[in-house]
Amino acid sequence: MTEPEYRSVTRTQYDEFAQLYYDMFKDSLREHHFDRAMIDAFAELAKGADAGPVADIGCGPGHVTGYLHALGLDVRGIDLSPEMVALAKREHPGIGFATGDMSALDLPDGGLGGVLSRASIIHTPPERIGGVFAEFHRVLAPGGLLSLSFQATDRTDALALPFDHRVAPAWQWSYQRVSDLLADTGFAEVARLVEAPEEDPVRGFHFCHLVMRKPVPENS
């Protein structure tokens, strides 16, 4: 089967910029207080649910994966870019990393207690995002948590709006419509945090953090 162009472009470009990306963002959690707060909350919820290991999907060079590991989670990282995965393995030798596609994860049904995807859905075209959310739902165990963050808009007239990105084509997402789509996929919203556009010194976008849960079936 021929690979979609957006996926091959994203992989190639992140391979090329992997070292630069690592150098720019390796310490970014120190500066992003809301990111850190929501990641901490997700980690505590995932540990409390005790529904299985956690995957950082779209992990890049592994700085967030390493942070989750330091918080005591059994975590692995998955990224589309082989160069990113190579950097992650070099910088975090005690954690498992692998290449993978978030729309077709090589993971069993219901095998994870948590999925974290930070600013990684932005390179998925809007017409394909439903398949990604279905994959996240498939690999999570009942009671498992999804932490999803992304460049966002408060508009609801479109699911996503394209924007210029240094590496690959990208979209900012309507946070309300993303929440609604996740609900249609079978998730229940636990919490959301939306950073004001004034907090983004580069583009002036909202940045949204959503935490969703895959409900435990009744009478289970």
From TrEMBL:
<keyword id="KW-0808">Transferase</keyword>
<protein>
    <submittedName>
        <fullName>Class I SAM-dependent DNA methyltransferase</fullName>
    </submittedName>
</protein>
<dbReference type="InterPro" id="IPR041698">
    <property type="entry name" value="Methyltransf_25"/>
</dbReference>
<keyword id="KW-0489">Methyltransferase</keyword>
<dbReference type="Pfam" id="PF13649">
    <property type="entry name" value="Methyltransf_25"/>
</dbReference>
<dbReference type="GO" id="GO:0032259">
    <property type="term" value="P:methylation"/>
</dbReference>
<dbReference type="GO" id="GO:0008168">
    <property type="term" value="F:methyltransferase activity"/>
</dbReference>
<dbReference type="InterPro" id="IPR029063">
    <property type="entry name" value="SAM-dependent_MTases_sf"/>
</dbReference>
<feature type="domain" description="Methyltransferase">
    <location>
        <begin position="54"/>
        <end position="144"/>
    </location>
</feature>
